[in-house]
Amino acid sequence: MSMTQQATPAVETPPAPGPKQSDGRTRHRPLALRLLARPEIGVFLGAVAVLVFFLFAAPPVRDGSSMANILYQSSTIGIMALPVALLMIGGEFDLSAGVAVITSALTASMLSYQLTMNVWVGVVVALLVSLAIGAFNGWLLVKTGLPSFLVTLGTFLILQGVNLAVTKLVTGNVATDDISDMDGFAQAQQLFASSFTVGDVNVKITVVWWLVFAALATWVLLRTKYGNWIFAVGGNKHSARAVGVPVTFTKISLFMLVGFGAWFVGMHQLFSFNTVQSGEGVGQELIYIAAAVIGGCLLTGGHGSAIGPVFGAFMFGMVQQGIVYAGWNPDWFKAFLGVMLLGAVLINLWVQRTATRR
Q1: For site-directed labelling of 265, which of 8, 192, 209, 334 has its Cα 20 to 30 A away?
Q2: Residues 6+ apart with CB under 8 A from 314
Q3: How many CB atoms are closer than 10 A to CB 91?
């Protein structure tokens, strides 16, 4: 008889069936709360409500050509609202964005006409000037530590005065000369201010550029390291710098993106109307900022998206043209914008509190 015995493995009794246990860390949030956490949800719902309202209040809005006109008005706001929104997510904002658009257009127009050069030379120089203005704003902000409100307010006043004074000095008038007969004008107009036909509806090329820029900005924010940097410096620049984020580069480049947007919209205005009024642009910066805020971007930075300002710009275009199609007094436009802005801020506040509530 063997003195060794073979051990028999113990049989574990399975636990009795019952409700699965989970703590707060593993509990899945409801789909509705996850959707509300998206910064563009509130403005999307608001845009749908405004669209439905004007479809009933202004029957001409239902026409395809009217909707194309609304999209065009939205695109001229939305192209600038995108870089302004990225800058706001990065914790800053730019009060000079409106007059910078006119500075860009004036530079291209006067340089080309007065020196009798191909308009593409003026376009390229205007791009360099716009990027330099953005770089100056960002550099001054980073080096001095001054709030972006003060830095860009100063730039706003400088550009406003320079636009008017230089235009009068060079042209003897408050507007630039017509450049429609100059070399390169047709090609530049094709890029910045052309249109195409969809069915029997004429659509401006800026609508396409608007959507392309929105898709590119969304990809940058959500899929690139640079997008992470933008959110990081907007949330807390000191913490971002501590973990290796290039805060100076990010801030300056964001202001330069606003400069690029100002250049593009300025070129559209120039090649749409062939001339530029030097006193325009004042007040537009508030429209761009409001479109970004309505789109879910916070003035405190670190929160927002690129899609939200698209809907915010659409709401502006919808209200601006919807009032006209409804036959109302257009003086009510700014009142509507104020109501929309306050409503968006309150909705965004409610959405954030609801989304973070356990």
Answers
A1: 334
A2: 47, 70, 71, 74, 78
A3: 25
Pairwise CA distance, residues 192 & 176, whole Å: 18
With H, G, I as helix, E, B as strand and everything else as coil, classify residue 337.
helix
Report the DSSP beta bridge partners of residue 317.
none
**And the tokens for 268?**
């559209």
Across the chain, which distance is largest between two alpha carbons, in Å?
Answer: 122
CA dist 322 to 56, 61, 113, 280, 312, Å?
A: 10, 7, 38, 23, 15
- Give me the torsion for CA of 247, 252, 257, 259, rounded to 10°: 160
Q: Hey, what amino acid is at 115? A: L
pTM, two decimal places: 0.86
Please write the tens of the pLDDT for every residue from 239-280. 888 999 999 999 999 999 999 999 999 999 999 999 999 888
Smallest CA-to-CA distance from 75 within 317, 295, 284, 281 is with 317
| Whole-angstrom distance, CA of residue 235 vs CA of residue 233 | 5
The whole-angstrom separation of Cα 164 and Cα 99 is 11
